[in-house]
Amino acid sequence: MIAPIAVWVNGSPALNGIDAMDRGLNYGDGLFETMRLSNGSIRFLDSHLVRLRRGCERLRMSCPEELLLEEINRIAGDVQDAVLKIVLTRGHASRGYRPDASAELTRILSLHALPAEISADALKLRWCTMRLSRNEALAGMKHLNRLEQVMAQSEWQPEEADEGLMLDTAGEVICATAANVFIVRDQVLITPDLRYCGIEGVMRAQVIGAAERLQVPLSIEPVWPDDLADAREVFLTNAVRGIRSASSLAELRWSETSMASRLRGALNL
Amino acid sequence: MIAPIAVWVNGSPALNGIDAMDRGLNYGDGLFETMRLSNGSIRFLDSHLVRLRRGCERLRMSCPEELLLEEINRIAGDVQDAVLKIVLTRGHASRGYRPDASAELTRILSLHALPAEISADALKLRWCTMRLSRNEALAGMKHLNRLEQVMAQSEWQPEEADEGLMLDTAGEVICATAANVFIVRDQVLITPDLRYCGIEGVMRAQVIGAAERLQVPLSIEPVWPDDLADAREVFLTNAVRGIRSASSLAELRWSETSMASRLRGALNL
């Protein structure tokens, strides 16, 4: 195990860990954000906080934004390059699914070394067998119910592939296990519609915004496995790893990376 | 908050809580069992362990059954009536969805007072708005991804209803938020097919077994909301609360409780 550089719980170093009755642990009742610290500042912090706030609204939790901002500054202030993860749970409460409005949310901030393969490009992709379930009420959120991603990643060893693409139970291509996916076809940039499942990635939102500014034709639409065969270029987006081009998926091969490069430039990545 | 009577983590009193990197907390990567201690012994312990073992197999976790049995005996040995909850997670590991085969599972055992309304009957039911997502790969397991149940229970206040029935995204009736559901129609005992979602409850399995022994005609099949209108009797099952008859659901009313009574008798509840 690679231990985190540091962990803080509710603003203090996590000497005593998390209460065993925490609802994040018992039910996955909470949200998280994984952010890239680069040259001493958090990349796209505002977008992360917007998503966290929206997730809190949908889960009917208050969002302790000011506390989090203060703690982020305290913890990440002197750090140059790292990953900062925030987990926000509905706190610890009595046994039972019903939320306890009087419970104080649990804030967990942890600082991690950058992944080793951070700038890897020419990604080798595979198809995952594990499907994503559909539920509009939970779609888009970065909540803590992530067994589907866990089981998907357990399907292959790191040396066999860099990432796995996931379909939902209806067969639509939704995302990679820990990244959103974009394809370029007939000069149009296409990314899957996430109305039923998937996470609305912060880097995905940045890429969509950059495409609009660059006047790149963009379509957010259902994507099917056959669409990958017709794609001229494929890349993945993730807040920590940025924009990474794919070079293969099963028998498919891509060498085109110009759209990814252009977007990376527009976003100063 | 009603605090648990006691909590043990990996066999010791939980003085220091759970590691913030625990995969149960970060991804809901684990399973749980909620068991009824009655007159000093755990009701249907074997069935709980069978389900836990099957869940471990499906999640590709080893099941520390002997350790758990030893700890259950140590913790629950002197207790007459209570709720014993086991949470088993894939332990704490580096950041990232990929399971770490070298991580030691986390075992959390907690002892709780019986719920106040334990023997309540004539349940007032409601329909939940929150739907259950469908995924055969996760259906049936009592895993820690329970946001759908949390959000469903947050739809009403305890004084408005005793339980809520949940549909899946295709509109089938699957279960209550924390119980399985049975209906009686034309002398046939019917319970929803859980091939796509829902939890295979220990009390549900006991009721199915008892119905077979009593030669009650039984059908496990898709159930639709209209089937409730045609039901002569409706009851819920839960390992802690047993078998409880429903008296109403929206505009529907039931007074029949004979099948529930018969099954309760057969199971010595």
Features:
homodimer, 269 residues, alpha+beta, D-amino Acid Aminotransferase, Chain A, domain 2, 7 helices, 15 strands
SSE topology sketch:
2 copies of one chain form a homodimer.
Chain A (H helix, E strand, L loop, with lengths): L5 E4 L2 E2 L9 H5 L2 E9 L2 E2 L2 H14 L6 H12 L5 E8 L16 E7 L10 E5 L19 H7 L9 E5 L5 E4 L3 E6 L2 E5 L9 H12 L4 E4 L3 H5 L3 E6 L3 E8 L2 E2 L4 H9 L3
Parallel strand pairs in A: 7-8, 7-14, 11-12
Antiparallel strand pairs in A: 1-2, 1-6, 3-4, 3-5, 5-6, 8-9, 10-11, 10-13, 13-14, 14-15
Number of domains in the coordinates of chain A?
2
Q: Helical element count of chain A?
A: 7
Q: Which ranges of chain A are low-confidence, i.e. pLDDT below 50, for 5 or more consecutive residues?
A: none
Instruction: Give the total of beta strands of chain A.
Output: 15
Percentage of β-strand residues of chain A: 25-35%
CATH class of the largest domain in chain A: Alpha Beta
Helix content of chain A: 10-25%
Gap between N and C termini of chain A: 29 Å
- What's the SSE pattern of chain A? EEHEEHHEEEHEEEEHEHEEEH
CATH hierarchy: architecture of the largest domain in chain A: Alpha-Beta Barrel
- Relevant CATH superfamily of the largest domain in chain A: D-amino Acid Aminotransferase, subunit A, domain 2
Task: Please give the largest β-sheet of chain A.
Answer: 9 strands, mixed
Which structural class do the helices and strands of chain A define? Answer: alpha+beta
Query: What is the averaged pLDDT score of chain A?
Result: 95
